[in-house]
Amino acid sequence: MQVTFKVYRKDPEGDGKPGRSTFTVELPDDANVMDGLLKIRDEMDGSLAFRASCLRGYCGECTMRINGKATFACTAKVSAFTKKGPEITLDPLRNIPVIKDLVFDWDAFLWNKIKAVKPWLEPNEAPASGENLLPDSVMKDLRQVMSCYYCGLCDEGCTVLPVDFNFLGPAALTKAYRVAFDPRDRDGKERLRIAEQPKGVWDCVHCFEASEHCPRGIQPTERILALRDKAFKVGISHEKVARHHKSFAASVKDSGWVDEGRLALESEGLTNIKGLMKLLPTAARALVRGKAPLPYLHAKRPGADQIKRIFEKGEQEEK
Amino acid sequence: MKEFDVLVVGGGASGLRAAIAAKGAGAKVALMSKVHPLRTNTGVAQGGLNAPLGNQDSPESFAEDTLLAGDGLCEPELVRGLTREASEEVIWLEHVGVPFNRDPEGRLDRRRFGANSHNRTCYADDRTGHIVLQVLHEQFQRAQIASFEEWYLTSLAVDGGTCLGAIGLGLRGGKLEAFGARAVVLATGGFTRLYLPSTASLGTTGDGLSLAFNAGAKLMDMEMIQFHPTVISKHPGLLITEAVLGEGAEIVDAKGERIHGTNGIPREKICRSIQQALQDGAESVCLDLRPIGKEKLISRFPQTHELVRAVAGMDISKEAVPIHPAAHRPMGGIETSAQGETSIAGLFAVGECASNGVNGAGRLAGNTLTEAMVFGRKVGEAAAGHAASAPKRSFPIARLSDEEKRLAALTSKEPANDSSGKIHTELGKLMSEKVGLIRDQGGLKLALEQIQELKARYQRLRVTNPSRIYNYQLTSHLEIGSLLCVAEVVALAAQARRESRGAHRRADFPARDDQNWRCHTLVSLVNSAPQLKQKPVGIPG
User: Fold this and answer.
1) Does chain A have fewer CB atoms within 10 Å around its N or its C terminus?
2) What mean pLDDT, rounded, does chain A reach?
3) Do the Cβ atoms of A46 and B465 come within 8 Å?
4) Which value does ipTM take for this structure?
5) Residue B534: inside a domain, yes or no?
């Protein structure tokens, strides 16, 4: 079958501006997009740059957007993408800097961020002989997380990265989870401290796009939330957002609904005079409009006691 | 110019292990890899790695199984070394974080795999290679070793029989750089892309073998290439781990009848059973995983289930998959001693690119990753030791400009009607047909002639892309050159060995001939022509 590929081009040795090349190739009916790319480079345009390694969906190297869908070129059947027309457009992933054509800057996008979370075990003292005895349930969770093949699709879907490229991102934070939740790491808190820094777990807006995008079902968003929970439990939670979460939960537990005044104060921190001063203009405007919530003088909702019991039960179970 | 004590080339399991060990032994180490370590071929390994950890098991039993799989060609000392140290390496992997599957007591679980007589294969689901690779890379980063990722090794600097370093092309920056090193460790992987269709990653093209061979090293047992029995026939082909056979999967013909002789025996015997069935008229041979049970299948082999669906559009819990044997991995490679030394001083080799005699004529399933760990550590330490005592010699810096000229001469804007891809397609088909599972003199002679023709075409071929930045047309061109070099050596060795042993089958010499052939084949360049010698088994290297 004849297929026309419209491929994104960018030449760092030329004008560096994005462009597009069109190639029409003859391919077998069961060909993948990767077969098309390899044939183009071999027979038509040796300057076309794209990465490839395993050729069968194992390694995460050949991610790109095919007709707008972020996936792997090596498992993307051409016939599946030509149902609506004989043209296939190939584009870079979202959020990713491009070096040349479809060769992306994985260092900036992924590898450097992963390095930043110190993604290795500092092993515990080894048992006297043999392996650490551990239940498979714990290992299974780690195997699930480590099925990650660094395809970048979670970061590609992330809604924070376009706004702040320095956000560590779901892939790196999932790697932080891998170490923080491995009982063989000597200091599980180290990764939590790193993940908890600015640009870390608290910059995630839990839009769940990462979990939607992950082709392996690793659920990066849930892993980020688990890191937050763990950080709380071990007392690493001095960031403003962590205070916000704590205050939110506390007022709902006490009264069945959010005490906005208390929330504003406790998020800043009750001893944070500078931060509290910043709230004054907003508080004044709210007061004038009769909308100032009085902190701590907050009526209980009907059913507040039941809500309190739910919290208590949850806290019990966690112990 | 960059200077190191030890330069490791290749970022897969054995390279990472060697780099970590060399650093641990006090050397200043650098790693060079043409793809990022996490994209290397190690990641496609699935089944597991062997260690004699069971109560009933022992290094002796493990050694026996390894020797049997090697069909009389293994170096016994090396097998003893491997089987003695396997457990320590696997336990080390566990300590540094590999989340192996566990038994109900929380100990490392072990599965039955291939022709192992005990359950001794430790595993992490069906993605052991992928997970072990990640943990090795984690520890590699922890050791803060200089890492040159996406750097292509273009030549070794060998002077008067001593290796002084290497020259690499940085794909991102497009610059050629000289790397002075007192010890270079090649961990560049195998050459399974020689055969098409292939189960190997795109870059598995024997670059290290070709460079070492052309620099004067010897290639050993190159005719010994293991074929894997359970490779999906649908393009692009996907290897299903043989571990499924140990868990209850069956190889059946189109009618669903079990094919005789396909479980618990060495791979090449299973391959020949399948081949025979196809030749006897079976329309297809299938792998039926349904006997494992859907729940167990998805829980034990999650990646297999996912990838077969992604790659072939089939659900292995519902239907049997057509399979065929395909070239999988070489037992042969650069001849080395037990410490990974080649015949060139300062040049070491480890992993798939090396042949120290531990595999002989056939590798026991589950040994590859174990070897990468055991020998990776040994060779890394040996390289560090060598670097510490080797006299300092300056890198022949003139080689850098020679290399610039050589690469520039490969480039020409003139359009060609030939291409490296076309040469590769023809070569891959030729090797599969004439130097495949079963060989004979007529086919091998033809193969050698056609390889010469392909080589001549390759000499005339030029690279049209003049850029050095991510110029994969150039690297592909160089890789095809490596494959052509390797192809000739494989065919020569296969032609020379007039017997059948392990993975090497001659239709015209179907019996094993210990009297004349209980020895390794060694091919080296003498006056620019390949020459073959024999090396009896048991001679210390």
Assistant:
1) C
2) 92
3) yes
4) 0.94
5) no
